[in-house]
Amino acid sequence: MSGEEQFKKIISHCKEYGFIFPSSEIYEGLAAVYDYGQNGVELKNNLRQFWWKSMVQMHQNIVGLDSAIFMQPKVWKASGHVDGFSDPMIDNKDSKKRYRADVLIEDYQGKITAKIDKEVGKAKDRFGVTFNLNEFLTTNERVVNYSNEILRIDSIMKEALESGDLQKLKSLIEELEIVCPISGSKNWTEVRQFNLMYSTQMSATDGESELYLRPETAQGIFVNFLNVQKSGRMKIPFGIAQTGKAFRNEIVARQFIMRMKEFEQMEMQFFVKPGTELQWYTYWKQNRMKWHNALGTHTENLKYHDHLKLAHYANAAVDIEYKFPFGFKEVEGIHSRTDFDLGKHQEFSGKKLQYFDTETNQNYVPYVVETSIGLDRLFLLQMCENLVDEPLENGEIRTVLKINPVLAPYKIAILPLVKKDGLPEIAEKIYNDLKFDFNCFYEEKDTIGKRYRRQDAIGTPFCVTIDYESIEDASITLRYRDSMEQKRIKIAELHSFISKEINWKNLLEKV
Ligand code: ATP
């Protein structure tokens, strides 16, 4: 299956099985805005909970926060977002479509990477077990040329982005003969900067004032730095974490929930002593990759990508990228933000945002290392990584979401074999016993085979079937989602079995 086909399948699976729906669909939808359905909300909550538990509960020196979406507009002036939070955009004059200039160029590089992958695939087939990837990548003339071309483009783009040279970006697009994916033409406008913040009005006694919808959750943490530090008696190094909605007027919103106008971030700002920030940056860079590995994501599908252009606030930055069906793309960013944010808020608010170090008897503005992950992109990653089609012995294909059991929307499906003879009563009793501790699914309709398939498709790790034997010996058939293995187990043992299998500890221990 091509990447495009795989991605289409994921999108339609998300809709068909109640994970994600286009927003306001009965009114033809709203571009790049999505709603999470009955199964999606469970999975999203579980992913958020995993992040929160691993970030806040597992660290003595990290605490949580839930700051408001609306903030004093001066916050965004101080943070640099009013003046600098923009993307370089270019329009195609024929299709009238607008693109991010750097993304057009990255997509072009992605095509070259795909060519390298194709060569590697062919060589693997040709050389079999003797194939040496490293040697091939460094000696095959065609592949070396492709790699050099990617590097050359990188370096021109880096220079153009760093110096804000929009003409240089345009020239690169022209030189690479990049065409509009819709019209196929090279009829481009100049490259221009567009601010990504949404604004709205708030009524006040002295009239209306303009507000912004926050484009990141981080600023809510910075402005509360001293509140949390003082009230929590926090000692540096310490972190403040929060999850919540962020809004960006992404002109080129596409790729499903990858780039939305309203999305959710999970961010942690770690406050450190100046001079130690790069050590902590390395620590968090490694720690966050370990976290992704703990979720079971294949290591070859994850990689670091150092930033070409450092944001105005950063002295080091890296992305963790995942190999989506449309190529490697950012899921999480780790940034060493220096004292930029606290320093700016100090300057704009006129309030001291300093920490008194009792060991050195010194006051200083702490440096910050940030980890910032998009919950929706993590959701998409989980779908791409775990949704598989498996051929069965009878020639049929089953679609299974092989998600970690702890994260699954439902932990167990309770299925009476038939809708009579006392079986539903036993099943209901099991449901009523388990529902306090686990999200359970109850279903009586359809053949047991069809019911199993539906549970596979939404990732339910265990199904229990109540049959006539259950009346005799108080046992049920337990079916494993991944192996489809079935075994008999006493109803009385079910609770402790499920507790063991879906314990958060199973996941958290690996972080
Ligand atoms: P990109 O380069 O893809 O636009 P970014 O570098 O602007 O992303 P950050 O500002 O670092 O993103 O935000 C942190 C995280 O928030 C990203 O790693 C991503 O997972 C998520 N994110 C950012 N923008 C969006 C969006 N429009 N839709 C969904 N998730 C997003």
Describe the structure.
- This protein has 511 residues and is of the alpha+beta class.
- It is built from 18 helices and 23 strands.
- It has a seven-stranded mixed β-sheet. The chain has a five-stranded mixed β-sheet with strand order 20-19-21-22-23, sandwiched between helices. A three-stranded antiparallel β-sheet has the order 5-4-6.
- A hairpin with a 2-residue loop joins strand 12 (316-324) and strand 13 (327-338).
- The longest helix is centred in the first third of the chain and has 27 residues, at 101-127.
- It is globular, with a radius of gyration of 26 Å.
- The two termini are 33 Å apart.
- The structure holds adenosine-5'-triphosphate (ATP).
- Adenosine-5'-triphosphate binds next to strand 10, strand 13, strand 16 and helix 13.
Q: Which characteristics define this entry?
A:
globular; 511 residues; alpha+beta; seven-stranded mixed sheet; 25% strand; binds adenosine-5'-triphosphate; five-stranded mixed sheet
Strand line-up across the major sheet: 3-9-10-16-13-12-11
Can you count the beta strands?
Answer: 23
Portion in helices: 40-55%
Give every kind of bound small molecule, once each: adenosine-5'-triphosphate
User: What fraction strand?
Assistant: 25-35%
Structural class: alpha+beta
Radius of gyration: 26 Å
Distance between the termini: 33 Å
**What is the average per-residue confidence, as pLDDT, rounded to a whole number?**
94
- The low-confidence runs, each spanning 5 or more residues with pLDDT under 50, are none
